[in-house]
């Protein structure tokens, strides 16, 4: 089969690889219907994370089950399934607490920008749709594998409640879907930080009421200004840099929470400073699996359309262009069709 | 009047000072019935915080109102009152959100280890008891001015819920009262980290079910061991050092919260490490004012007896011995009688 491999920063290739096969009896093999490029893939592509050997890329996927191991009980060949980037047994104490991405048996799923994929812990990881979905729903279902679930978790972790003022730091796909999540949670005012017209437009469509173009300390000052000097009730940090985290904390009112879902790079928090802000922090790799049943239902009913974040659709063999377009911010998010 | 002044680390003196007087019309003057030495006073006493000039000490107090300014409407001379170490207007957005210690008009109260005290923003800061309390209730009422409210906030910030397993880092008065709070909140199992027999005994009396004597990484490992490898649902960090904070985070299960109320000294958090723990953080200077009405009620009804943390009672002129005894850990907490 063909699959995507990164060799070095900027060097992503589609190449012939061995077909994935069942390794342990809890695995499943799925034929990928659609995959995509994640903002976190760009950490490698841009050389922020070191690339020391060729690595199969991709961790967002929807597809049709081809084969399951002998211990797989609920997932069946022929089903259309969605899974998270962390495989999880969905039965351990961390899973039962809703933190499947901290499952005691978790495994990172990798190599999804390909024609086929091995998914570990298939019963715990995958959720099947009732029927094969209409093709036009596939982009939205694909987002549930990571970005929509991650934006949703940001809003959960920030404890967004009806009537609140929410600020979103980051106008990538996760930030935009954080806007959508905050809107579904009943936020009255949603301030998105964005300088990009197409992203501002989609943010507005998803429920943003205010746009702030300033960044860093100026951005935080602008949010304070928009909130009577107090700060937003909840802030979604969807970037992961030292600057974005500082901005998120500085934009939050005392007693409010920052839900942070951008993988932190170089973020150091001064305990004493944080203490006197009274700002709470909660985040981490989103437990996407927790939200799959609810979000699949919302997509199938047409209540949410997170698939709009894909403003570029490419055949899998143009995967390198997908990375380039996202890295150059020409595209919000690239969908790949095997 | 006589009041306590720190001149240098280890050098605390009771001396004659000017009587406090009304400065602005929202002030009140109270005659101190009892004051005490706070664990945070020891940061100065031990030279961890620099002492660059003589500073009046003490921020925990109960007393009888002597005089109020012309703008004070609800607090009256003759009332027995309790207030927080942060004066607050109790009307600004932060106060209304329950974070009075981030009041937009907040002022630190200082100089309470004395015979009399000026309390700013009297209407917002002070809460009066219905009647003059029985003398035996005064120690418990005094704890509401800081330590009991702070332990209570630690449990609130850690989101302690009925049936949970809670760990408490720190066996000072705040940690012990954090145990009491967790117990009142319905925690099923309360693990306290302590090596001191008298403190262990009081912790047990307040509801601790397990005692861990290991510290740091070993302490966290022990908590993991006691919780099936997962960690406590909620952890109360009541110390404020880099080691205690690291231990608290490492003792918490994914999705659990650390409620941190020890003023952080040298605490630096690595964003990426925190991210992958899935541990939430919330804390800060306790908004004691929020809890005063409820806690006064519990003390007056005899439902809680936080005053037991005072295992040393001294006349005010022996204030220096109070500091020494606490610094040498001969006493949990020293009550001072003017």
TrEMBL record, chains A, B:
Residues 10-336 form the Enoyl reductase (ER) domain. GO terms for molecular function: oxidoreductase activity; zinc ion binding. Signal peptide: none annotated. Its cofactor is Zn(2+). Keywords: Metal-binding, Oxidoreductase, Zinc. Pfam families: ADH_N, ADH_zinc_N. SUPFAM superfamilies: GroES-like, NAD(P)-binding Rossmann-fold domains. InterPro entries: ADH-like_C (IPR013149), ADH-like_N (IPR013154), ADH_Zn_CS (IPR002328), ER (IPR020843), GroES-like_sf (IPR011032), NAD(P)-bd_dom_sf (IPR036291). The keyword Metal-binding applies. It comes from the Bacteria. SMART domains: PKS_ER. Belongs to the zinc-containing alcohol dehydrogenase family. This is IMP dehydrogenase.
């Amino acid at each position: 089969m063909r699959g995507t491999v990164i060799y070095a920063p900027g060097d992503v290739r589609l190449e012939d690889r061995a077909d994935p096969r069942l390794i342990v009896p809890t695995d499943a093999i799925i034929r990928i219907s659609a995959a995509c490029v994640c903002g976190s893939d760009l950490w490698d592509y841009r050389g922020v994370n070191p690339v020391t050997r060729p690595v199969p890329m991709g961790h967002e996927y929807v597809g049709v089950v081809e084969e399951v191991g002998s211990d797989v009980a609920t997932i069946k060949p022929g089903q259309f399934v969605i899974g998270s980037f962390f495989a999880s047994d969905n039965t351990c104490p961390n899973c039962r607490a809703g933190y499947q991405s901290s499952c005691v048996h978790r495994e990172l799923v990798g190599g999804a920008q390909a024609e086929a994929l091995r998914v570990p812990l298939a019963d715990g990881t995958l959720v099947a749709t009732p029927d094969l979905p209409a093709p036009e729903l596939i982009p939205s279902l694909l987002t549930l594998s990571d970005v929509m679930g991650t934006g949703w978790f940001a809003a959960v972790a920030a404890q967004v409640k009806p009537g609140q003022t929410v600020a979103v730091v980051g106008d990538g796909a996760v930030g935009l879907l954080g806007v959508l999540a905050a809107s579904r949670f009943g936020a009255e005012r949603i301030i998105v930080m964005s300088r990009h017209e197409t992203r501002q437009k989609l943010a507005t469509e998803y429920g943003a009421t205010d746009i702030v173009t300033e960044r860093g300390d100026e951005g935080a000052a602008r949010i304070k200004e928009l909130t009577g000097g107090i700060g937003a009730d909840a802030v979604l940090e969807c970037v992961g840099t030292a600057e974005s985290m500082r901005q998120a904390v500085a934009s939050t009112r005392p007693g409010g929470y920052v839900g942070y879902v951008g993988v932190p790079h170089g973020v150091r928090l001064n305990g004493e400073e944080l203490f006197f802000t009274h700002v709470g922090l909660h985040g981490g790799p989103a437990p996407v699996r927790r939200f799959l049943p609810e979000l699949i239902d919302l997509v199938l009913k047409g209540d949410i359309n997170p698939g709009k974040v894909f403003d570029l659709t490419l055949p899998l063999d143009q995967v390198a262009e997908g990375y380039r377009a996202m890295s150059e911010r020409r595209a919000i998010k690239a969908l790949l069709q095997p």
